[in-house]
Design a protein that fits this description.
The protein is of the alpha+beta class. Helices cover 61% and strands 7% of the residues. It comes from Limimaricola soesokkakensis.
Length: 464
């Protein structure tokens, strides 16, 4: 190998590069590190390519010779490193099936394959087809504002809204009450226990109690309720499509009747207080009128005001007659003497008129007596009191009657009714039981139980 040309004062390093060192073993790299490098050689120290030693300078030929010597030593060290023997380990032997492996296979068959096989056999050979009928409805309320709101919102006593009624209806459909009512009409026990001998797991036991029937009802009825929109949707299962539709239709009828009862109760609550106020005002008006009638009968007078007007008219007439008699007496006094009979008669007339005026005025005094023996002041006071009570009773009755009419009208406007958006459907093919899904669930849970059990067993085994 020809030595490299030295073009500058810096002699290139003769050590191998990093890539060659990585190909060697640890011993080869150690030997390479032991080879002296030209870059650290004290024989080459200068910038002009000349050697500086204590004995004197070296020529370029000597420098080339030393470089070739260093390169040969490096190649020798590399060859020794490559000649280092490589240890080849033997390949692992194939694993053998042991007893614990057979235990895993057996447990997998018992915990996974056996349940899946049993479920598949039952679902495809014993389980009876089930048909679904879908029904959807909501509770609506006609709430229309009217002029009766000007009376102070008398119709605002209606409690709850359509959503509250929908929540009540949702709980009612899942209750024992509706199960009992539908059982009385359609005989749910007979419908659901007809195939008990063939399909004992998915059918109803004919000897079950009402509580068992309610539990089975919750299995055959899937109901959902949206609290935001108030929509109720349900799916009813039965072993016959007509029976499923009949059960769904009966649920709708019972729900509609329940909503009507809730609406009637709401109307009754809305008009209860208004009706009570109306009855109280009516009784008060009746008592006031009866008291005024009794007063008129006792005093033998229909209207004391009119009677007083008559008495005042009589006094005015007597006053006019007295004035005329006095004038006549004055005229007679100018033409006749004092003993004249005409003057005496005129004087007597004046006295009689004055006496009558005095008697009529005494009727209005404290000691005066009216038609019933009482003075006019007491009679008039009692009559005015009874008249005021009657007027108040009439005003209260008018207001109570208006409030009752407004409450009744508002209750009618806010009546509830059941609005159906999905009528009971009639299925044409069976969709239940969902055999593939049930088998998949059995397989999933069986595999999880087997995997967890195996992990726990081997964990305890390795610990021991």
């Amino acid at each position: 190998m020809a030595p490299p040309r030295i073009r500058s004062t810096n002699v290139p390093d003769a050590a191998p590069d990093a890539s060659e060192g990585e190909k060697m073993g640890p011993r080869g790299r150690k030997r390479l590190r032991a080879v002296p490098s030209l870059r650290g050689n004290p024989a080459l120290d200068g910038n002009d390519g000349t050697a500086h030693q204590p004995g004197g300078p070296k020529t370029k030929r000597e420098l080339r010779r030393e470089a070739r010597q260093a390169r040969r030593e490096a190649e020798k060290a590399r060859a020794e490193a490559d000649a280092e023997p490589v240890v080849v380990r033997p390949l692992a032997r194939p694993a053998k099936v042991r007893k614990r492996h057979w235990g895993l296979v057996l447990s997998f068959g018992l915990m996974v394959l056996a349940p899946v096989g049993a479920a598949s056999w039952y679902l495809y050979t014993r389980a009876v087809d089930q048909y679904a009928s879908t029904l959807g409805f909501t509770v609506r309320s006609e709430d229309v504002s009217s002029a009766s709101d000007l009376l102070g919102g008398l119709g605002s006593t209606l409690g709850g809204g359509a959503n509250n009624d929908a929540e009540i209806l949702y709980e009612y459909i899942r209750s024992q009450e509706i199960v009992r009512q539908i059982d009385d009409k359609l005989d749910l026990r007979e419908l659901y226990s007809r195939h008990h001998e063939v399909d004992p797991l998915l059918s109803f036991d004919p000897d079950g109690t009402i509580e068992d029937l309610v539990d089975y009802w919750e299995r055959m009825l899937r109901i959902s309720y949206d609290s935001g929109s108030g929509l109720i949707e349900m799916r009813v299962l039965a072993f016959d499509p007509q029976e499923a539709q009949a059960i769904a239709q009966e649920i709708y009828l019972e729900s509609s009747e329940t909503v009507n009862e809730l609406s009637a109760v709401a109307r009754e609550d809305a008009t209860r207080y208004a009706r009570a106020d109306l009855e109280q005002a009516q009784e008060r008006l009746k008592e006031a009128r009866e008291a005024l009638t009794a007063f008129r009968v006792a005093n033998q007078i229909v209207d004391p005001s009119a009677d007083i007007q008559g008495q005042m008219g009589l006094l005015n007439t007597l006053q006019a007659q007295l004035a005329a008699a006095l004038i006549d007496l004055d005229l007679l006094g100018d033409s006749v003497g004092e003993g004249d009979p005409r003057a005496t008669q005129a004087q007597r007339r004046i006295e009689v008129i004055r006496a009558r005026i005095a008697q009529e005025r005494e009727k209005f005094g404290a000691d005066g007596q009216g038609p019933a023996g009482e003075n006019y002041a007491t009679t008039i006071s009692e009559f005015e009191r009874l008249s005021v009570e009657r007027e108040f009773a009439e005003t209260a009755y008018t207001a109570a009657l208006a409030a009752y009419d407004a409450a009744q009208a508002e209750a009618e406007r806010q009546s509830r009714y059941l609005a159906t958006y999905i009528r009971p459907t009639l299925a044409e093919r069976s969709q239940f039981p969902q055999r593939e899904m049930l088998i998949g669930i059995v397989a999933l849970f069986g595999f999880l139980a087997w995997a967890i059990g195996s992990l726990v067993y081997y964990s305890l085994r390795d610990r021991n």
